[in-house]
Amino acid sequence: xxxxxxxxxxxxxxxxxxxxxxxxxxxxxxxxxxxxxxxxxxxxxxxxxxxxxxxxxxxxxxxxxxxxxxxxxxxxxxxxxxxxxxxxxxxxxxxxxxxxxxxxxxxxxxxxxxxxxxxxxxxxxxxxxxxxxxxxxxxxxxxxxxxxxxxxxxxxxxxxxxxxxx
Length: 166
Description:
The chain is mainly alpha-helical.
């Protein structure tokens, strides 16, 4: 197509705008990743938890009770490394291990609810801010944002799995 034609210029302009917007989104996600990592680090320091411990605690809270093997997979950790994390979390009274009712040889890990409230309290500033941000969007926009975040998280999991397999 001849770029001197009005339609071609418009299409090229739209393509440039699309690339800029996509770049802004990727930059925003990178900034968000850094800020959340810094927040998690601060929370971990206040609670005397390592970053990996806090990440596993979050995963247990969201997906637990969960078996150590499933948790290791979700956390992208070697099972031996996860054992050390779980030992620290158990010593700190953050989690408990209980027998798996469907498999007597296995255990399930779950969060001690009273301790989880400490993490929730430290996240309250962020949660309040996010509530305020969400209040600025209508329901249809929130559905779109939630879908984008879920799909982006899925893409991150796939990329992580692919790197782990190499």
